[in-house]
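Researcher: Sequence of GNAT family N-acetyltransferase follows. Predict its structure.
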Amino acid sequence: MHVHRLNLQLNEDLAAARAVYLDVPAYALSAFGALRSAEVVDKALTDAFPADSTPEQRLSFLGCNKDQPQVLAQVVVGFPTPDVLGLTLLLVRQGVQRRHLACEMLDRLSRQARRWPGIQRWRTFVLESNAAANAFFGHSGFMVATPPQVLRGFHEGARCLERPIKARPVCRGGHGQGISHAARVTVPDGRVRVW
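Model: Prediction complete. Tokens:
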């Protein structure tokens, strides 16, 4: 997977980010209770960062395979404290989920973050009802850091999860792992998903 930084002020980069976002309707339904239009998605992508973070702290990345956008990640460097890399968004297109692309994106961004002065740990918030995301982040070595809290703009509680930046990658892309070592989660439709 090729990972590059996006400039959401450029129409081409914004369109690529929008394509990934719109291809994950379960995220919009879970997070916001409704599907979103392209205009609302564009605003969500550019305004999703904490209001008191600076533009220099707000970074968006796109992971592509064969020039097809597949993974979108947004991070805030050094926010809310100088040692934190905040993960505000991590989406994988519907057709390529459960292929360890999100694991690869986290690994690539972790390697990059090791070069940023002072960054020691990841931090993200995951809705309590999002069983798949909670399983994924557990699979990726994140631990619950604080009790659930309701975040601005959301209608339910979210868990704060953290992981050291220098932690060794938990996931090896499924290579060498039997199914018994993979994280399993049962989703609302009753199917078991394996990461």
